[in-house]
Specification:
By secondary structure, the protein is of the alpha+beta class. The protein has 3 domains: 270 residues, no CATH class; 111 residues, no CATH class; 58 residues, Arc Repressor Mutant, subunit A, CATH 1.10.10. Helices cover 41% and strands 19% of the residues. The strands form 4 sheets. Strands 2-6-7-10-1-11-12-13-14 form a 9-stranded mixed β-sheet. A 3-stranded antiparallel β-sheet has the order 5-4-15, with no helix packed on it. A two-stranded antiparallel sheet has the order 3-16. The relative contact order is 0.09. It binds zinc ion (ZN).
Length: 456
């Protein structure tokens, strides 16, 4: 079964403080309709003018996605009547977009253009409210060719795309709603179906799965197969039909008379290119070189900008192999378990350095350090003070450990017998018992050595 999937990603440019065609702030008071002016309310006589910062940010994204920037382009009016659009048209780009012909993960990017976000509708029981605070917020639309043949490909693409956008500062994973995706799903013998307005990075995958199943079923049935548009219902995790698909011609694009010629010089493009920050791919290479990490480990750390910045601060104070191990294994474990991001956790380098320093100097065991890290995910505190208060310093005095070993040997005669008759796994069991007795504070090296000696 041949599957073709194309996508359109709408990204709110988060680091633009003002709207695309007026100077209203994009963030600020949430009181409805307070961040508006005649331009973003579409009042007669108002004129849009292009926000230079939004243009620069969009060019950064286009360059990071290997696109060719058009040095001259214009904006168009996309006509449709809907309450969230006060002008009855959206100012966007159609014939000549900002950038074309990019590539990411072997998926071709057809075009990237700038456009304004419409307002927001709030549906209540028997009426609908309109908030124009969002109206005119700068968006970029990234349109791919229908190169995806599986959900997995889209998952990897979205992962990489959001990492790039995050490094560029235009997107952050704490505000998933600022990324909205439309997908076109087209499986053999069924016309193309578009699913609109899917938020975040997980739901697009689910929507595709859902649509592939639906189309596969219809192909086998007598049902009429029509091209149409569906909408994603994030609560029910299903798609519902909204209308038969209109073609691009139905939108009656006309040139926006106030924005007929925007020019970007070669020099400006060069300057923007020069101002691009270090992206994840380059950072991965640098980490491999400087910290001598495995490629996989470097990729795990650089897949999150904040995590990778934190890592560097810690690795400059602590043995970097130890830091790598903890940033690749222990920290992601805590993040996954608590379903939080490193940003939301808010753990500081100070606490991590303190904790790993105790481990590095052999003042606590690995087990104790893991327990403290888990505790730090609930509440931030000083690991140094905590181990003093809770008496968690490493137990390395031979007499104390010998005492615990003797107890464990006495209490587990069967395991001792098994070990003596050649079952090495039994030693691990007795070892575990000693560690448990010490509440994880016994030096594991010493425990092992003493146990082996005693059971010889
Ligand atoms: Zn405005």
């Amino acid at each position: 079964m041949k599957i073709m999937i194309g996508t359109e990603h709408h990204v709110q440019l988060e680091n633009c403080k003002s709207k695309l065609f007026c100077s209203c702030p994009t963030l600020g008071p949430e009181e409805p309709n307070t961040r508006t002016c005649p331009t973003c309310l579409g009042l007669p006589g108002s004129k849009p003018s292009l926000n230079k910062k939004a243009l620069t940010e969009a060019i950064k994204v286009a360059l990071a996605l290997n696109c060719k920037i058009n040095k001259e382009f214009f904006f168009s009016r996309k006509t449709y009547f809907y309450n969230d659009l006060p002008n009855s048209f959206q100012i966007t780009q159609y014939e000549l977009p900002l950038a074309v012909n990019g590539k990411l993960n072997n998926i071709r990017i057809r075009r990237i253009h700038l456009e304004e976000d419409p307002g927001k509708l709030i549906h209540e029981e028997n009426h609908t409210l309109i908030d124009y605070n969002r109206s005119g917020t700068p968006l970029i639309e990234i349109v791919t060719e229908p190169d995806f043949t599986s959900q997995e490909q889209l998952r990897l693409f979205l992962q990489k795309l959001t990492i790039i956008l995050e490094y560029l500062g235009v997107y952050s994973r704490k505000s998933e709603a600022s990324l909205r995706t439309d997908v076109n799903v087209n499986i053999e013998n069924h016309p193309k179906v578009e699913i609109k307005n899917i938020t975040g990075i997980i739901d697009p995958i689910k929507a595709i799965e859902c649509e592939i199943q639906r189309q596969s079923k219809i192909i086998k049935s007598d049902e009429k197969k029509v091209q149409h548009t569906r909408i994603w219902n994030p609560e029910a995790k299903i798609t519902t039909e909204v209308r038969t698909k209109e073609t691009e011609e139905d939108y009656g694009y006309i040139t926006e008379p106030n924005l007929t010629k925007i020019e970007v010089s070669e020099k400006e493009i060069k300057e923007i290119k020069g101002s691009l920050p270090e992206l994840a791919e380059e950072k991965t290479k640098r980490f491999i070189k400087i910290y001598r990490m495995k490629e996989n480990d470097a990729e795990v750390i650089t897949s999150d900008l904040i995590l990778s910045n934190l890592f560097e601060k810690v690795a400059n104070k602590i043995d970097h192999n130890l830091a790598t191990r903890w940033f690749v294994r222990e920290i992601p474990k805590v993040l996954n378990y608590n379903k939080i991001t490193i940003e939301k956790w808010g753990i500081t380098e100070k606490r991590l350095i303190e904790l790993l320093d105790l481990l590095q100097k052999n003042k606590i065991t690995e087990t104790t350090a893991q327990k403290i890290l888990e505790k730090l995910s609930q509440k931030l505190f000083s690991p140094k003070e905590y181990i003093k208060k809770e008496n968690l310093e490493i137990l390395s005095g031979t007499t104390d450990i010998e005492k615990l070993c003797d107890e464990a040997i006495k209490e587990n005669p069967k395991a001792v017998q098994d070990y003596k008759s050649g079952n090495n796994v039994s030693l691990n069991y007795i070892f575990g018992q000693v560690m448990r007795k010490s509440k994880g504070t016994a030096d594991p090296y010493q425990v092992k050595k003493i146990l082996e000696k005693k059971l010889k």
